[in-house]
Design a protein that fits this description.
single chain; about 240 residues; mainly alpha; three-stranded antiparallel sheet
C-alpha cells in the first residue's frame, strides 16, 4: 500500500465514463430528447460497446438526474417540469450572482478581456443565426463569467447544471429571442463589469435568468397535463 499523499500514475478513463460523456452530449444537443427510451441493444450496437459498461454509464446518468428508471420498462431521458426549469435557473442565478460579486471585487480587467472574447464568439454565432452555435457561444459566455470569479467550486457547480440547462433550451424554440437581442443582453452584462457598476450587474444577471424562466415556461410551450415541458426543437438562450 502506498503512503498517503504519494503521487501515483493516473489511470485512464474507464469505458463507462467515456460512454457517459457521449450520452450526456446526446441529451445536451437533443439527439436524445426528454421521454426517449434508451434501448440497451440498440445503444450498445451504435456505440460499439458491450452492455456491461453501457449499463454502468446509464446508471451514472440516473444518479445525475438525467435519466429515470421505470420498473419493468427501462430507462428514459427525464422530462423537465416547469418547476424543474425554475429550480435550475434559480440555482444558476445563485452561482452567477456570487460570481459577479467576486468579479467586482477582483480583477475586473482580466474578466472584461475574457468576456469580450466570449461575447465576440456570440456575435459571430448570432450572425449565422445557427441556434446550436448560438447556444454554444451563449453558454461559453456564462461559463467564462463563472470562471472569472476565480472560485473553482462555483465552476464545478455551474458545470453540473450545463446539461440540464441545454435540456431546458429545447422547449424554447417559439420564445427564442432575436439574435441581436440575445447579443445585447450579454453586452449589457459585460458593460456593467467594465464600468464597475455592481448594482446594475446584479440587477441584469437576475433579470436575465428569471426572464429566461418565463420564456421557457410560457403557456405557448406544449404541456402534457402533468407539468412536463414536451417541445423538443433545439434552441439556444442560456
Amino acid at each position: 500500500m502506498s503512503a498517503p499523499g504519494r503521487l501515483q500514475p493516473v489511470p485512464r478513463r474507464s469505458t463507462a465514463a467515456l460512454i457517459a460523456d457521449q450520452l450526456r452530449s446526446a441529451i445536451m444537443y437533443g439527439e436524445l430528447v426528454p421521454g426517449d427510451q434508451l434501448g440497451e441493444t440498440e445503444l450498445a450496437a451504435q456505440l460499439g460497446v458491450s452492455r456491461g459498461p453501457l449499463r454502468e454509464a446509464m446508471q451514472r446518468l440516473v444518479q445525475e438526474g438525467l435519466l429515470r428508471s421505470e420498473r419493468h420498462r427501462g430507462l428514459f431521458v427525464r422530462e423537465l417540469t416547469a418547476q424543474d426549469v425554475r429550480d435550475i435557473y434559480v440555482a444558476r442565478l445563485a452561482i452567477e450572482r456570487t460570481a459577479c460579486e467576486l468579479i467586482m471585487r477582483g480583477n475586473r480587467g482580466e474578466a472584461t478581456a475574457r468576456l469580450t472574447a466570449a461575447l465576440q464568439h456570440l456575435v459571430d454565432a448570432a450572425a449565422t443565426r445557427d441556434r446550436v452555435a448560438m447556444s454554444d457561444a451563449d453558454q461559453e459566455f456564462h461559463q467564462t463569467l463563472v470562471s472569472c470569479s476565480g472560485n473553482s467550486r462555483l465552476e464545478r457547480m455551474a458545470q453540473t447544471l450545463l446539461v440540464e440547462t441545454r435540456m431546458c433550451l429545447t422547449v424554447m424554440q417559439k420564445a427564442y429571442p432575436e439574435p441581436d437581442e440575445l447579443v445585447q443582453e450579454h453586452r449589457k452584462l459585460l458593460d456593467a463589469i467594465a464600468d464597475g457598476d455592481e448594482e446594475a450587474l446584479l440587477r441584469l444577471i437576475e433579470s436575465h435568468m428569471l426572464d429566461t424562466v418565463d420564456r421557457i415556461n410560457t403557456p405557448a410551450c406544449s404541456n402534457d397535463g402533468t407539468g412536463d415541458l414536451t417541445e423538443s426543437s433545439p434552441a439556444g438562450r442560456s
